[in-house]
Amino acid sequence: MSAQDQLKDMHETPPPVALYLMATGHYVSQAIYVAAKLGIADALKNGPQTCDELAKISGTHAPSLYRLLRVLASVGVFVELERNRFGLTPIGACLRSGEPDSLRAMVLMFAGERLQRAWGGLLHSVRTGETAFDHVFGAGLFPYLAQNPEAAVVFDEAMASLTTQLSAAVAAAYDFSRFGTLVDVGGGHGALITAILKASPTLRGMLFDLPHVAEDAKKRLEVAGLTGRCTVVAGDFFASVPSGGDAYILSRVIHDWDDDRSVAILKNCHRAMGEQGKLLLVELVLPARVDQSAASQIAVEFDLTMLVDTGGRERTEAEFRALFEATGFRLTRIVPTHSPFGYSVIEGMRA
């Protein structure tokens, strides 16, 4: 069923049924999580399989797996064929591991036990403005990950899968060739700076992140053959940011933090750059008014996720302008990318 047909179907659904399907959306979320955990999409990559065959591959109870797969077929993740056989749809194909457009790691994170428990604290967040994850686990998300390596691996894989898809879109959407040196602040494992450097052969790069992340980034940049064009610096962007860049890019960094901490990060960028320096944020831009489009839904759901998980927030264009003004910048333009999730490059310069 096409997206247009699904929208038509949604509008033709009686309101009580539509509300029921919304309220039980976690049924589908958990079913997708289980399918991702079991590797069902990987088992189907070479063609349809019977439920009995899938049960043997995944080590599950065939009748129960059948019930799970029928739910997922009803929402278009899989397709039920004749003789109890199931196949992949384009949506289900995104659950395969090791593919460029794979979202398996993101499903394991967002629909996994830890973040689902955090969402159980949403009422607390709405009543108090406090972060649900902190309330439920007694620690912030990032300190929690530092103490829980297994959870950190899932988180890193999920962020890497999103960054891989986003990096190519950013490199294609914005002209980085005008700069001599680009500093990737909070650059993670280097996927973004790698994509940009490969798209702009004359550009030099600098990746800046916490020490344990920087060490891994060095190895990945070496594998990519970019150590001669990109240096790696370890540090904390709340303390300072390296100088020497013509432009400073922060991809999905600012949305993790509230306004006070975002101001601290951006002021450090302002201190580090020259008079002609550019600030580039890769972020979602919230619509001023929400409609029922997929783009609106994704944006506002990410915003609520920030409330639940990190205490950060997504922002509207007006809110980004205010944030820039509070840190000595002037927002000059917003460049959309072709990222499937609607990210943009928000450009600013020293005011």
Quick summary of this structure?
This protein is of the alpha/beta class and 351 residues long. The protein folds into 2 domains: 3-96, Arc Repressor Mutant, subunit A (Orthogonal Bundle), CATH 1.10.10.10; 115-350, 3-Layer(aba) Sandwich (Rossmann fold). 52% of the residues lie in helices and 16% in strands.
Question: Explain this structure to me?
Answer:
- The structure is a single chain.
- By secondary structure, the chain is of the alpha/beta class.
- The chain folds into 2 domains: 94 residues, Winged helix-like DNA-binding domain superfamily/Winged helix DNA-binding domain (Arc Repressor Mutant, subunit A), CATH 1.10.10; 236 residues, Vaccinia Virus protein VP39 (Rossmann fold, 3-Layer(aba) Sandwich), CATH 3.40.50.150.
- The strands form 3 sheets. The protein has a 7-stranded mixed β-sheet with strand order 6-5-4-7-8-12-11, sandwiched between helices. A 3-stranded antiparallel β-sheet has the order 1-3-2. A two-stranded parallel ribbon has the order 9-10.
- Helix 3 crosses helix 8.
- The radius of gyration is 22 Å and the shape is globular.
- The relative contact order is 0.09.
- The mean pLDDT is 94.
